[in-house]
Design brief:
By secondary structure, the protein is mainly α. The protein is built from four helices and no strands. Helix 3 packs across helix 4. The model has no long low-confidence stretch (mean pLDDT 79).
């Protein structure tokens, strides 16, 4: 389905690494690596916002410490950062 011959206007790639081809992940890896400096500030801002939301949504215990459920929090932070990178600022604001 995601083979280059279907999604890259008939581009013929001699890639035998997988059935779906590995051109798309390689292209994304190169493009994201090349633009990492441009994306860093925007992703950092999103991560800080989500982290503060997670902390403020939690109730502090009697000892003053706040307990956080790490797995749901990590999923939320990673999902938000990925959506910012792949879909831009406007679409990443929607949950």
């Amino acid at each position: 389905m995601f083979q280059p011959k279907y999604t890259k206007y008939g581009l013929d790639v001699k890639d035998v690494m997988s059935h779906n081809g590995s051109l798309h992940p390689r292209v994304l890896r190169v493009l994201l690596t090349a633009h990492l400096a441009d994306l860093q500030a925007a992703v950092l801002e999103k991560v800080q916002i989500v982290l503060m939301e997670e902390i403020s949504a939690s109730k502090a215990g009697p000892d003053g410490w706040t307990s956080l459920r790490i797995f749901p929090m990590a999923k939320n932070i990673i999902g938000t950062a990925n959506s910012r990178v792949f879909f831009g600022d406007i679409l990443s604001q929607e949950k």
